[in-house]
Amino acid sequence: MTPSEFDTLADAAFERLVRALEESSADCDWEPKSEGVLELEFADGSRIVVNRHAAAQEIWVASKSGGQHFRWNGSSWTDTRDGSELFAALSALVSRQSGSQVILGGK
Fold first, then answer.
1. What is the maximal distance between C-alpha atoms in the chain?
2. What is the mean pLDDT of the chain?
3. Nearest of 107, 102, 106 to residue 91 by alpha carbon
4. Burial class of residue 25 (count of CB atoms within 10 Å of its CB; 0-12, 13-18, 19+)
5. d(CA 91, CA 63)
6. What global pTM score does this model have?
7. Domains of the chain
């Protein structure tokens, strides 16, 4: 994938994530920290940081439970270790850290 293709796909994923957070019941504050970095902060002070890593052409997620790297497989962003899909993984992480069920869907 070219750097331009990665940028387009990563931008779309971040836009989808922001839209999904706006539409969800997630009990957290979130804000872009810089281009390609989104930080979610929870009531207990914990954070989830989502950022694009252009050199690896991946989206990285850091949370209390550790780090995950997601790579484009041609149809979705999937975890390089367990194959989970980015938005399913984020839904589980946000649910765990907020203490309530959150589904980050959106298309």
1. 40
2. 91
3. 102
4. exposed
5. 12
6. 0.91
7. 3-98 (3.30.920.10)
